[in-house]
Design a protein that fits this description.
The complex is a heterodimer of chains A (about 375) and B (about 450).
Chain A lengths: L10 E8 L8 E8 L4 E5 L6 H9 L6 E6 L2 E2 L10 E4 L11 H10 L5 H14 L15 H13 L5 E5 L7 H18 L2 E6 L2 H7 L2 E6 L2 E6 L1 H6 L4 H6 L4 E11 L2 E6 L4 E6 L8 E6 L5 E2 L6 E12 L3 E8 L2 E9 L12 E6 L4 E4 L3
Parallel strand pairs in A: 3-8, 3-9, 6-7, 7-8, 13-20
Antiparallel strand pairs in A: 1-2, 1-4, 4-5, 9-10, 11-12, 11-14, 12-13, 14-20, 15-19, 16-17, 16-19, 17-18
Chain B lengths: L14 H7 L1 E2 L5 E2 L6 H40 L6 H5 L1 H7 L12 H17 L2 H9 L5 H11 L7 H8 L6 H9 L7 H6 L2 E3 L5 E3 L7 H32 L2 H12 L6 H12 L4 H8 L15 H25 L3 H9 L4 H29 L3 H6 L7 H10 L4 H25 L9
Antiparallel strand pairs in B: 1-2, 3-4
Helix pairs in contact in B: 4-5, 5-7, 6-7, 11-12, 11-15, 11-17, 13-15, 15-17, 16-17, 19-20
């Protein structure tokens, strides 16, 4: 899988801007390279500009400024039907008046593919998504998951090099969604096609992607592989948006060797990795993952007194809401293992964390 | 720790309880809790609901039955009703029963005698003129013949046959007696035969009317073809408008929709008359064309009081009935379909023709049926702007209702029109499927 940095990227957004009303920018100065065969997810809350980016790539929206290149060729002025990009829509957009097989044959027919070849390709694409027996059905006779499979098959049947998916699993229930995530991922692996995937579901993004671009307010906040995104968020937005996160606001006292000493607003000090904070004296926000916090006596460098507010039993772990250094919503996940700390609401204990698990980020 | 043995409120019902809730009797009929069959007790519980629903629609039902269905049924019944002849000429009707016009030239003497007796009685009751006009619809000259014979019938004595022929030679013609015999029943097909340009021949067989008197089939044909033309033009003009309306932002499309509906708030007569102002020979359009030098003052176009006028005016009037169903169907077609088609490699035209258009067909069906059925029975506009070549069958029906007073023929024409519309509707259902028609 390309990581977009080494070889020449396949899809390039070069200083792309987009505005609908001429007053505000929906996409601000987007620079992004997507490698051939990569599975890249655009993740962000609604209104963050991720779908607009996808639509510009598909050709349904025009960039206000900047250039989009596909395989070195600028495609700004190429109409959507000549871009040769497969697309899976949010509501599937299967043509209701055609059968499943006719839906799949459509992109081949408009390309004037010979009849015999169309039949073979349609059959192969249907078999790929385990829908071989459903060719004669109408989309309305299929379940949501089956429609989704057909939509994926249709976007792939004409062998495009790039496939765009716009929240394709949004309408499915949780279990089906997880199953489809694996199926799409497997299809991607076996075909080696480049996929640009848009979602607002962070779990989906982490499961499927080679790299994730986190969008907020028209800007890519961070572009990283999933584990980096989760373990080493670069901004407080990413830390907050991906997974659960404890945030402690404070002021940098001193920085030495990439470590910051931070005075927390609620009282007390903590050492943290100086990831994205200013010099001594500037405001910062500390980010600590709930599962990296230890409860009870320990010899870790950063310690604070904690009062247990609420306990929620979740089977594999116990979610514990505490009040720490003046913050009421400090969450700790206590694993449900032999010998774990038994806590009770109202009890006072100590929480502690490693300096490398605590990241000093921007004070947003 | 466990409380399972205490049997909390969420305890599942035991097997015995489940069996008691709905028991199967020995015959296999489901029984309700009190032992009555389940079906019966369901019907009982629904009866009140049904009664309530019926009572709610009752006033409207009564109103419609009384003011719409009953008069129409009565009117349509007139197309076969012929009670006036057997009522007024019972003796003649009885005497003619045995006579076969194909076998003998004239009926037996008994028929002549019966006619004279009937005629005397009718003259006294002053009803012979009404019977005469009734028969005049079938054979011209009958009205005069009856009036003349009525005046002199009481003076005929002895040889009735000679006496009647002496009053008028028509009584010596086989056709006169055939007509009397053919219309002696209480019910008759005569109006329907006239409505399709047929009549009874001299010996009672059904023959086509002389070429010059054949007008109704021609009118039916013209009505059908003009209605189709109007449906076609409204579709041609309405489709792009509906497409535009369905794809504009809500604010703009609502404004434009008001413009589409605007004609509804103007009187039909005003709209039709304005077309006369525009299209007549000395009208706005012709004047403009002459002023521009495009046509000669001597050769002004005749755009109204003919078929062109009817098509133009009716297209304008019926256009909203095409646009609205089209719009409401197009509104439900998500734009993502066309986008999907384009992303799959279809040009704008292919995406429209293979993906958008097929999904708008239910709207076309609804609009076309609406416009076609409205125009096939349209009356006012063709009457005002149709001249002679642009009138419909409905104008002829109106003529027979209000001018010639031949209500039977009017009813027969109306029945044929009704059957034609229902037949087309059936055909449409077979080809397109009525459940494919959507109004929104």
């Amino acid at each position: 899988m390309g990581d977009g940095a080494g070889e020449k990227p396949f899809v390039v957004f070069d200083r792309v801007q987009k505005s609908y009303d001429g007053e505000t920018l929906v996409v601000k100065d987007l620079n992004l390279g997507i490698g051939k065969g990569e599975f890249l997810t655009m993740l962000g809350p609604s209104g963050s500009g991720k779908t607009t980016c996808l639509m510009m790539l598909a050709g349904f929206e025009t960039a206000t400024h900047g250039e989009i290149r596909l395989g070195e060729k600028p495609i700004n002025n190429i109409p959507p039907h000549r871009r040769g990009i497969g697309m899976v829509f949010q509501n599937y957009a299967l043509f209701p008046h055609m059968t499943v097989a006719e839906n799949l044959a459509f992109p081949l027919q408009v390309r004037k593919t010979p009849k015999a070849e169309i039949e073979a390709k349609v059959r192969r694409a249907l078999d790929m998504v385990q829908m071989g027996a459903f060719g004669g059905r109408r989309p309305a006779q299929l379940s949501g998951g089956q429609q989704q499979r057909v939509a994926v098959a249709r976007a792939l049947v004409f062998d495009p090099e790039l496939v765009l998916m716009d929240e394709p699993l949004g309408a499915l229930d949780k279990q089906l969604r997880e199953q489809m995530q694996y199926e799409i991922k497997h299809i991607h692996d076996s075909l080696g096609v480049t996929v640009v995937y848009v979602t607002h579901d962070q779990a989906e993004a982490l499961t499927m992607s080679d790299r994730v671009a986190v969008f907020n307010d028209g800007v890519i906040q961070q572009l990283s592989p999933p584990q980096v995104l989760y373990e080493r968020p670069m901004t407080s937005f990413v830390a907050q948006f991906i997974g659960e996160n404890n945030k402690l606001a404070g002021r940098v006292k001193a920085i030495e060797d990439g470590e910051a000493l931070v005075e927390i607003d609620g009282g007390g000090f903590s050492r943290a990795l100086a990831v994205n904070c200013g010099d001594a004296g500037s405001r910062t926000q500390l980010s600590i993952r709930p599962e990296r916090v230890t409860v009870g006596e320990s010899n870790l460098p950063n310690r604070a007194e904690a009062r247990v507010q609420e306990l929620i039993y979740l089977g594999d772990h116990i979610r514990c809401r505490m009040s720490v250094l003046g913050y009421e919503d400090f969450v700790v996940k206590v694993p449900n293992t032999p010998g774990h700390a038994h806590l009770a609401a109202g009890e006072t204990t100590t929480v502690a964390w490693h300096t490398e698990d605590c990241r000093a980020l921007d004070a947003a | 720790m466990t409380d399972a043995t205490l049997g909390g409120p969420s305890r599942a019902p035991s097997r015995e309880e489940q069996a008691a809730m709905a028991e199967k009797s020995e015959g296999g009929v489901m029984l309700a809790a009190d032992g009555t069959p389940l079906k019966l007790s369901l019907a009982r519980s629904l009866r009140r609901k049904r009664l309530r629903a019926f009572l709610l629609v009752l006033p409207l039902l009564a109103f419609v039955l009384l003011t719409f269905i009953a008069p129409i049924a009565d009117m349509l019944f007139r197309s076969v009703e012929n009670q006036i002849i057997p009522d007024n000429m019972p003796r003649t009707v009885a005497a003619l029963e045995e006579w076969d016009p194909a076998e003998s030239e004239l009926p037996p003497d008994a028929a002549f005698e019966a006619l004279v007796l009937d005629m005397v009685e009718m003259e006294a009751a002053k009803s012979h003129t009404r019977v005469g006009s009734r028969l005049n619809y079938e054979q011209s000259g009958m009205s005069g013949l009856f009036r003349k014979t009525g005046r002199r019938a009481d003076r005929v004595e002895g040889d009735y046959r000679a006496g009647l022929i002496a009053i008028d030679e028509e009584w010596g013609e086989r056709q006169t007696w055939t007509t009397l015999k053919n219309f002696s029943g209480a019910y008759t097909l005569g109006y329907f035969l006239s409505a399709v340009d047929m009549t009874y021949g001299e010996t009672g067989e059904i023959v086509a009317k002389p070429e010059l008197q054949q007008i109704y089939m021609f009118l039916f044909e013209r009505t059908l073809w003009l209605s189709l033309a109007i449906t076609g033009t409204t579709l041609l003009l309405g489709y792009p408008i509906a497409y535009l309306l369905a794809n504009l932002p809500m604010r703009t499309s609502n404004l434009l929709l008001i413009l589409v509906l605007l004609p509804f708030w103007t009187s039909l007569l005003v709209r039709t008359s304005s077309w006369i102002v525009i299209l007549q020979q000395q009208g706005v359009l012709n004047d403009t064309l002459v002023a521009l030098g495009l046509i000669d003052d001597q050769n002004r176009l005749s755009l109204i009081f003919n078929q062109t006028g009817t098509i133009v005016a009716m297209t304008h009037i019926l256009l909203p009935f095409m646009i609205l169903p089209l719009y409401s169907v197009m509104k439900t077609i998500p734009p993502s379909y066309v986008r999907a088609a384009k992303s799959l490699g279809a040009t704008n035209w292919t995406a429209f023709w293979r993906v958008y258009f097929p999904q708008s067909i239910p709207g076309i069906g609804a609009g076309a049926i609406l416009v076609f059925i409205l125009s096939i029975g349209y009356y006012i506009t063709p009457e005002l702007v149709g001249g002679t070549s642009g009138v419909f069958i409905s104008n002829r029906i109106a003529y027979h209702i209000s001018s010639s007073l031949n209500w039977g023929l009017a009813a027969a024409l109306a029945v044929i029109l009704l059957i034609a519309v229902m037949g087309l509707y059936w055909l449409y259902d077979r080809i397109v499927g009525i459940d494919n028609v959507k109004l929104g």
